[in-house]
Here is the input.
Amino acid sequence: MEEHADLLEQRIINTTIKQIREEGYAAISLRKIASQIDVTTGAFYKRFDSKAALFAAVTASLSHSLAQQVQELVAPISDPTEKLLRTAELLLDKFQRDPHTMDFLFFNPTAQKFSGDAPPDSRFPFYNYVMEIIADLQQIHRNLDPHKLFIQIWSFIQGYGLLIAKHATSYDPELIETTLNSFLKA
Here is the structure.
């Protein structure tokens, strides 16, 4: 029975991610999700006691996936500045290709609790991985304030990513590198 519950929970998460990709997270309907996977809302609420709990689980799932993608991408790179640059490029590419998911990942109420000084949380490995890169950068740039750098990077990626997603500007890899370098010199 427990294995069945875990499978149902994963189906709910996967269906929610699909709905987010197609319609955005503001359009999430718990009844629609339950209907799509042919369960009652009661069965849904046995797994997730609220929409916030569902969002936390979906954010964690997406964070795990994104952390794995980033780690695979930057594994051969030793320079933390280059790692951060490649991470930013991956995120901005995702803003172009999958804007609803990125909007959810950055702006849903669960994700908004991270401000760069939150303690490590095993449910959000992408956040933890970015903080590890920043810690490596601090070894090179001794005067670097990790909290300030996190806020600068996060703000830049969020803002630039939204501009790209809304087609207000186009992706420019040189802008990313110039911006990151200016943050590191500050």
